Write the structure tokens for this entry.
Amino acid sequence: MTILVTKNQLVIPGEILASGSGVKAGGGVFRKKVNNETEIYASMIGLAQIRKNRVGVVPLEGCYIPLEGDIVIGKITRVGITSWNVDIRGPYVGTLRVGNVIERDFDALRESLDRILQFGDIIKAQITFFDRMRDPVLTLQGRGLRKINNGRLIEVDPVKIPRIIGKKGSMIQLLKNMTNTQIDVGQNGRIIIVTYNLEIENLVERAIRKIEAEAHTSGLTDRIREFLEKEKKLISERSE
Amino acid sequence: MNEEITSLIREDGLRLDGRGLHELRPISMQTGVLDRADGSCYLTWGNNKIICAVYGPRELHPKHLAQPDKAIVRVEYRLATFSVEERKSPAPRRREYELSKILSESINNVIFLEKFPNGTIDLFITVLDADGGTRCAALTAASLGLADAGIPMRGMITGCAVGKVDGKIVVDLSDIEDKEGEGDMPVAMIFNTGELTLLQCDGMLTPEEVEEGLKLSKTAIGQIYQMQRKALLAKYSQIEEQSDELDEEEE
């Protein structure tokens, strides 16, 4: 077995990563038999990832693929008789059943669903069930899951979300603590920023855009800390 | 102005636009040019100007087209009204239907469609200026757009036409060589593995000439592939520094 790329090397689809048997395939790659030899190729643009004898690609571009347990920020696109359809920015539309929203019994003959959630409402929900045969099923019952009434909604590339959250939540904690804002991150690439200062709100958005653009570089947390310190000083000087 | 063209190869052995027989036209590529599309590419190839937008994988409408085991690829290839010599009607013509079909069949084979059941991947390719070889250029642009959208693929498709002009095999035909020449053979392949995704032939070519053409096209495709690679990574190498353990920074 031979691994033909170095760690964190930028690769494009179709680039060979490893050949010979004994190499395991991680995410973002595919195997192919060429002259009785197994070869592993990248299937997405990203950074090569090597861990022991497993090669994979951390994608730099991509859409959101729902996973059970993900917290997502969705938008109601249809109000039905006993369920809502929710846009979760993926290839599939999320379904939110009324039983997963309110605890009491719901009588569709007497009540209308748009008294609970209306078209266009933004919600923070969790995916409870998804198997690619049916559309993902969402729930609003859980800690922190709710309808979102205020804040700024921004959309980022879903593949950059792990970077925005950071190692064990370090990046998002940094953003929250330094700007004193409430930030809700959905795995589907939607972020809600809640603060009562417009300049701080703009600053947080700029910081998130910076993380998004530089997601493939190292030492990002330190650079974001410097960036926030510098910008916060400017804001306080201006307000004086 | 109606000078009669007697030969497509000049006395000094070069072609009408001053290229050598196996020389490509200047090519430039840029990805991520459209804000609203998931992936996009702008490509100029000689006088060809092509813009490609990729959407998806997304929900498919109308639903009856959906396939429960895989996504479908829909390609819309269009010539702009001002892209050809005389104004073209904006309605799609036979040529556009044909090209949309062959492009989607070619792309079908390189995408992992089974990862997105019931979905669709839509490509909109608009030729702003046409000067021969647009189907190969469109495929080259399409695969850049697909990679930019982050759609998993078996490899990058790269295309380049070869043909026969004045009894000689030439690479990358221009519009006039395509129309007045003796034969035209568009080739597209995944360069890394050498798998063909498109091979058409129009005109009279002997088996030996086809073989020679394929060999020449592979060399040309190799050059174009390197440009594709550069164009795709340009966005990242600009702000690239030493990357650390991205994988372990996940939540």
